[in-house]
Design brief:
This is Phosphoacetylglucosamine mutase. Keywords: Acetylation, Carbohydrate metabolism, Coiled coil, Isomerase, Magnesium, Metal-binding, Phosphoprotein. Pathway: Nucleotide-sugar biosynthesis; UDP-N-acetyl-alpha-D-glucosamine biosynthesis; N-acetyl-alpha-D-glucosamine 1-phosphate from alpha-D-glucosamine 6-phosphate (route I): step 2/2. The chain is about 40% helix and about 20% strand. By secondary structure, it is an alpha/beta fold. The protein has 4 domains: about 5-155, Alpha-D-Glucose-1,6-Bisphosphate, subunit A, domain 3 (Alpha-D-Glucose-1,6-Bisphosphate, Chain A, domain 3, 3-Layer(aba) Sandwich); about 185-295, Alpha-D-Glucose-1,6-Bisphosphate, Chain A, domain 3, CATH 3.40.120; about 300-440, Alpha-D-Glucose-1,6-Bisphosphate, subunit A, domain 3 (Alpha-D-Glucose-1,6-Bisphosphate, Chain A, domain 3, 3-Layer(aba) Sandwich), CATH 3.40.120; about 450-530, 2-Layer Sandwich (TATA-Binding Protein), CATH 3.30.310.50. α7 (about 180-195) packs antiparallel against α14 and α13 crosses α14. Bound molecules: 2-acetamido-2-deoxy-1-O-phosphono-alpha-D-glucopyranose and magnesium ion.
Length: about 550
């Protein structure tokens, strides 16, 4: 390590005194002006991680659905997964080291993680469309360079595209070509193969309106359009030319407010969807003829995909082990439908994509989605090989054809991470093959009325949870109080947990009616306020 150069460059990216940030569920996120030193240091860390793994590491500059003024950064591990938890810790230490301790902290990390400093380092960098992203990604490049690492700057990409190219690079092209063109070609080819066999629905069914949150999704989807068959009539809204990123639009806005985004005119029964700011989440929705808004969230997306996969597995006659992975935020009605009607095993894990991804790897086919629309499907290597073999050699025509559909699905799905573009194409292909309207899809089951609230407390870490975050262990008395409140309502459930991305405690409640779900959520939020050190005025009823 050239400590003189490090000192010199670090001085160009100084850390504001006393500022501490944490590498959380979604990496670092903060106001953009606080992040220059974090970016430089994540460039350093990516170079070390690359040396430690002997692989290319990704760095994505984005704050996803946060306001345009924010920014953030996430590291991508060799196969396109989220950064390993032990390194999240190093990331936090490095970001918070005072200037004079930087060298010491780096040396310590190298020792703890057994980094061979002689090895080559290679880092792929991408960024979203925020005004601050260009400059911040330059700080990442400075960090990589000062440690003698090589970098490839992909410029403007969606988060899942960066995960994809990292995986392609480290699998030596097995997963695909590590270029955007390679991504467009692989996905569009698989998509075209899939919809070839669709029964040819009417023109009206082919339209899809997409709210791109005024973000990167609009740019990349337009870039992909020439690769898609002309039967797909995709209409891009909120493309970022007029309005602010994520402002009153995007997947998070639609999910949280349960209403349509600004800037997209919806006619009754038209199929619409929203991406988030870095295009790794997607939710669908429509309004019915009575003008009611219907949200089709990640749970219903997981259900649609599971139904389709289950049918195909039955056709190919393979007993591959399939499971759906959810978090506690999954609507209880979706869990019940999956377990009881579809007879698919469901597992509940802690909030955060890495937990879902990890669990999904235990199965031949693991379908995972957060209710907010982040998700994908993982196929084990063995399952993938079986399917590809059957698609090639199976003598029985029906079985072989079903295996081919599965094979194309494997190629269409971005298995590295949830991907709005890829998920959208998967959903569109399934709806088209099954001849389903958005209304029919929505009717698989009816969501239980629910409410998500947040409460400010002095220190949200006083709440500790267990059982995939569904029960609070501390502070004393809180869980007993929640249990007593839940008993007052029919078909009810409630839980609380400290957010990993915001300084709040989240409260979730379900009950038989919307009024009851609202009332239960409110009463639980009061319990949190009183027992967990509420800050400011007590929560008011809705
Ligand atoms: C209830 C909810 O939607 N929580 C989100 C949110 O996490 P919190 O830890 O709840 O702040 O942001 C995460 C990162 O985007 C996402 O994985 C998660 O699902
Ligand atoms: Mg996102």
């Amino acid at each position: 390590m050239d400590f003189e150069a490090l000192k010199k460059y670090s001085a160009l990216h100084p850390k504001p005194a006393r500022l501490t940030l944490q590498y959380g569920t979604a990496g670092f996120r903060s106001k953009a002006e606080q992040l220059d030193h974090v970016m430089f240091r994540m460039g350093l860390l990516a170079a070390l991680r690359s040396r430690a793994t002997g692989s290319t590491i990704g760095v994505m500059v984005t704050a996803s659905h946060n306001p345009e003024e924010d920014n953030g950064v996430k590291l991508v591990d060799p196969l396109g997964e989220m950064l390993h938890p032990s390194w999240e810790e190093y990331a936090t230490q490095l970001a918070n080291a005072e200037e004079q301790d930087l060298q010491k902290t780096l040396t310590e990390i190298c020792q703890k993680a057994a980094v061979n400093q002689q090895k080559d380092a290679s880092v792929f960098i991408g960024r979203d469309t925020r005004p601050s992203s260009k400059k911040l990604s330059q700080a990442v490049i400075d960090g990589v360079s000062v440690l003698g690492g090589q970098y490839h700057d992909y410029g403007l990409v969606t988060t899942p595209q960066l995960h994809y190219v990292v995986c392609c690079q480290n699998t030596r092209g097995q997963y695909g070509k590590p270029t955007l063109e390679g991504y467009y070609q692989k996905l569009s080819k698989a998509f075209m193969e899939l919809i070839k066999k669709s029964p040819g629905s009417g023109e009206g069914q082919r339209h899809l309106k997409i709210d791109c949150a005024n973000g990167i999704g609009a740019l990349k989807l337009s870039e992909m359009q020439p690769y898609l068959p002309k039967e797909v009539l995709v209409h891009i809204y909120n493309d970022g030319t007029k309005e602010k990123l994520n402002h009153l639009c995007g997947a998070d806005f639609v999910k949280v407010h349960q209403k349509p985004p600004k800037g997209l005119d919806m006619k009754p029964n038209e199929r619409c969807c929203s991406f988030d700011g870095d295009a790794d989440r997607i939710v669908y929705y429509y309004t019915d003829t009575a003008g009611h808004f219907h949200l089709i969230d990640g749970d219903k997306i997981a259900t649609l995909i599971s139904i389709f996969l289950k049918e195909l597995l039955a056709k190919v006659g393979q007993t591959l082990k399939m499971a759906v992975i959810q978090t506690a935020y999954a609507n209880g009605s979706s869990t019940r439908y999956l377990e009881e009607t579809l007879q698919v095993p469901v597992h509940c894990v802690k909030t955060g994509v890495k937990h879902l991804h990890h669990k999904a790897q235990e199965f031949d086919i693991g379908v995972y989605f957060e209710a907010n629309g982040h998700g994908t499907v993982l196929f084990s290597k063995a399952a993938e090989n079986t399917i590809r073999q059957l698609a090639k050699d199976e003598k029985d025509d029906a079985k072989r054809e079903a295996a081919k559909v599965l094979e194309n699905l494997i190629d269409l799905i971005n298995q590295t991470v949830g991907d709005a573009i890829s998920d959208m194409l998967v959903i569109e292909a399934i709806l088209s093959l099954k001849g389903l309207t958005v209304h029919q899809w929505d009717a698989f089951y009816t969501d239980f009325p629910n409410r998500l609230l947040k409460v400010q407390v002095a220190d949200r870490q006083v709440i500790d949870t267990t059982d995939a975050e569904r029960r609070a262990v501390t502070p004393p008395g809180l869980q007993e109080k929640i249990d007593a409140l839940v008993k007052k309502y029919k078909f009810s459930r409630a839980f609380v947990r400290p957010s990993g991305t915001e300084d709040v405690v989240r409260i979730y409640a379900e009950a038989d009616t919307q009024e009851n779900a609202d009332a239960l959520a409110h009463e639980v939020s009061l319990a949190v306020y009183h027992l967990a050190g509420g800050r400011g005025a007590p929560p008011q009823p809705l």
